[in-house]
Here is the input.
Amino acid sequence: MPLHVMKGELPDLFRFQNGRRVRTDADWRCRREELITAILDIEYGHLPPKPENVRGELLHWHNVKRMNGLRYATYRIVTEGGAHPFWFFITVMTPPGDGPFPVVINGDCCWRYVSDSVIEEVISHGYMLVTFNRTEIVPDNYDPGRNTGLYLVYPDGDFRALSAWAWGYHRVIDFLATQKLADSSRLAVVGHSRGGKAVLLAGATDERIGLTAPNDSGSGGAGCFRWQGSGCEKIEDGIKAVPYWYSPRFRDYIGREEELPFDQHSLKALVAPRALLSTEALGDLWGNPSGTCQTYRAAREIYRFLGAPERIGIWFRDGEHSHGLADWKAFLDFADQQFMDKNNGTRFDIDPFPEMPNAFSWSAPAANAKH
Here is the structure.
């Protein structure tokens, strides 16, 4: 079996659909909108509408003595608009002190990867930790039906599960904007696997998010459709197993990945110049680690163009598909660098595939081309 299959070059981030080349920051803003439109139209469906109103109802709080007195609170997030009100639950864990605190948001409560050790690590770095269960928004039960959850609130929407979960992150941020202990200028979202796909989409479509951090997110996340590492997930696999994650139009590109007008480096580019970190496992072949490295290299070009090369990072560990304490520690080190200007010595530019050629031949326009 070959080590990889390359199905065409990654599309040029700096070339408009009409062939014109991006030359200025203003050009990039236009090109960015062009990419968002294509990605939502073809891959994810459009996000559900922004609600008319979002509020949080405090249900209970207490101090956790065994965790140095952190404040643990449960809220019901209520959204109004659409066919009827909708709600889901969040937990807010706040360090001792006056704040405001930078915030880490994770929607993977359905998996319980946020262990006590993870909570203690996040709090020890001085972050508020907010968690929720994205499957309360729409389920992830291998049933493509749309007769529950947010589907009933916006029955005419073309959103799918990943875009609904991304919408959930945005609603949590709406609530946090009302909380004096939350520093809304320093918000990070982090998720694993399919949760990482949702996080990357959330960060790409909401510029309030300062740091986007998918972990082992693979196909439809930080991976790559054109550069297919041995044993990786492909569009066909996702459509066969979980078609409700993606737009129905996406199936048209099964076996025709080279015809997509974008690849996942394009989604990463939408985050720029805000911070972006991919944490990956070299043994997670299904997650396409070499393809993820390709989209990192390509997206790095837009960060270079925008003068923010230090805001994109990638980090690999040995091992397989999981979201463990080592991944969280790496994420927090990167967050400290981005939000607190702490130089902790951890590098986020180490390429474990130095002999791998780039899957693209284009590069960012020269700096003097902006003038």
